[in-house]
Amino acid sequence: MSTVSPQAWLDAVLHSQTESPLPPCATCENLFWLIYSGIWDRKPFAKEVKASGDEFCKRCQLVWCGVSAALPNIRTWDDVLLHALRVTGKAQTGQEDFLRVGVQTNGYSHGLGRPVHWVDFYINPLHAFPAPDRMNGTPRSQVLLQSPAPPDSDEWYGLLRRWISDCDKRHPACESVGDSTLPKRILDLDFDQGRSRDIVLLEPGQHCNGRYIALSYSWGGRQDLVTTKENLDSRLTRISWEQLPILFQDVIKIARALCVRFLWIDALCIVQGDERDWMQESQKMAAYYGNACLTIAADHSPNVRHTCFPTLMGPAIRLDGVSAGTELPVLVRRAPIHFNLKEHRQERNSSYLMPLSTRAWALQERLLSRRILHMGFEEAVWECCSAVLCECDRPADIWNGKPELEIVPFRKIHQQTLQSIETALSLGEYWEVLLAKYIVRKLSFYGDRLKAIASLAKEFKASDETNAGQSRTLQLGDYTYGLWTKTLPAALLWANLSDEAAVRNPKFPTWSWNSIAGSWYYEQVPSTAEHFVPKSIVLEVPAESWDIDTQHESADSTPPYIVLEGSALEVSCCCVSAARKTTAKRVWSLSGVGDDRRLIVNLDIPPGHGITEINATCLEIGTSGCDDSKRCWGLLLEPSASFPGQYVRLGNMTASADWFRDNQGTVGKYSII
Prior knowledge:
Layout: H1 6-14, H2 26-32, H3 46-55, H4 58-70, E1 81-87, E2 98-104, E3 117-123, H5 140-144, H6 154-170, E4 180-181, E5 186-188, E6 200-202, E7 209-210, E8 212-216, H7 232-235, H8 246-257, E9 262-264, H9 266-269, H10 275-282, H11 285-290, E10 294-297, E11 317-319, E12 330-334, H12 345-349, H13 360-368, E13 372-375, E14 380-383, E15 388-390, H14 410-418, H15 427-438, H16 451-467, E16 479-480, E17 483-484, E18 533-534, E19 537-540, E20 562-577, E21 587-591, E22 600-603, E23 613-624, E24 631-639, E25 647-656, H17 659-662, E26 666-672
Parallel strand pairs: 8-9, 8-10, 10-13
Antiparallel strand pairs: 1-2, 2-3, 3-12, 4-7, 5-6, 5-9, 11-12, 13-14, 14-15, 16-17, 18-23, 19-20, 20-21, 20-23, 20-26, 22-25, 23-24, 24-25
Helix pairs in contact: 3-4, 13-16
């Protein structure tokens, strides 16, 4: 088998029949066995694969030698599970089939979780496999033997330029930006014509155009270099290179290598501590990120004192003497740690490596930008409205290791939904989907919670008004404290399901999700649930206002309120079980009404442990589902102690569909502040 093709070699390795040139053993049968659920349930431990390979099994020997060579830093293999599968490449793009082994480092504790590492196996064929022009006809397995271009090198910058050029020429949907209106303040990277590496802050004035790059990054606590009222004049004169933290220096190097003169960084281009300047500039985020020719996302940098350049990957390793059915050497290489940019898997699976994915501001910065260069832990990734590309030239991985050959960029999905093109979600439903991704992210300042999504809200508003016409009416209506008037009353049914101690912010009305500090979730997004039917009528809503920092005029003035009319019951909210040992959360139910096994109560802020019962009004909001799955939804309210005739929100509930009718609810009007 000295001249076998990659496909023939894989056929031999993966063939599990006894007549195979590589007879199977019980261990490698489980190793290569693929199912679509419970995929780790029968997978062998690495030590079992090693033992089998040491005895007689060539396939186990191949996998163990490759994995242990590619992952020399794993100290113990006792609780490591292995899973092998075949990945089918595309001949037209120079991608051969290859063997991929997933490495789960915590045994069964992760269940269906994503492996920490992937190790890829190739053979080194003598013939030239068809390959794209950039490989000059060289087989991919030969390319793997070469050291990748190090970040901040001419070859690495050449790849970035090719990505930009291809997007300019081939992606009309990306609306490539040339010169555009510069922000109020911008960093000039060439103010002294290259005589030094120093930069300067400019106030170019209105109608000044140019190409600029924007930075999306995590502050990571204290910021060493900011612009304030006191040092603004100094920043407008010169900012020395030595003053700049390493993250800013890296981004400046990239901008200069791409021949982009201007750079926008919020810490330097917005006057920190000046509330008026911050309010003005934060409302321009959509324009600032949308008009940038490129946004650089420092995904793996925890703060500005950390480089944004990826860690350099090493070349593939030759395995000689354990080729498993071929005299040709087998190449192994740990797959680079990269993150899936499809929808929101990045936040769920890679936050430990990509701190930026945990930050609230970064969500709208990503969606408002036309083109993004993601600086990952071990490679750079390009994301625009038309493509997702990475340095390793492989598609992003899904959880079981099989590449998704066709990735629909999140940015493209976002634009299609805003433009009502090929989308199954209405704008209101999509807003709630984004909120679910947004509220789990972190903010350094709780007061920024509505600010950090305000530019996206304005984009939704503009889309709603632009696309409304003969084909449809307005879907959203007015924006008020994070909710849309046209999606009420369903949008009121958010729930604080966090075990953390919640705190009510008196600056915001209790019916707004922004009134609860910390994390909250939609237990179920009612407006996207099948056959949601509103039962309450919305009679009054606050006037639309984008001034999200406006305080109540005085302690005696009535806060913003919503008036609903619907069926309601007077109930007692009772604690039915104490806190569990591992959490501070207690379980609540409703008394004074008929029993219902489907009754679930979620309180926004459970009272102190000494209080076990609260009198409440339960207002019917709507029903969702169909047939046996149909259920009702309600808000729990209590009279305001400060404003007679008004109610404050306590939480929400859900029960069987006929719960309100069976308990003889009474129709009334309720003003909720």
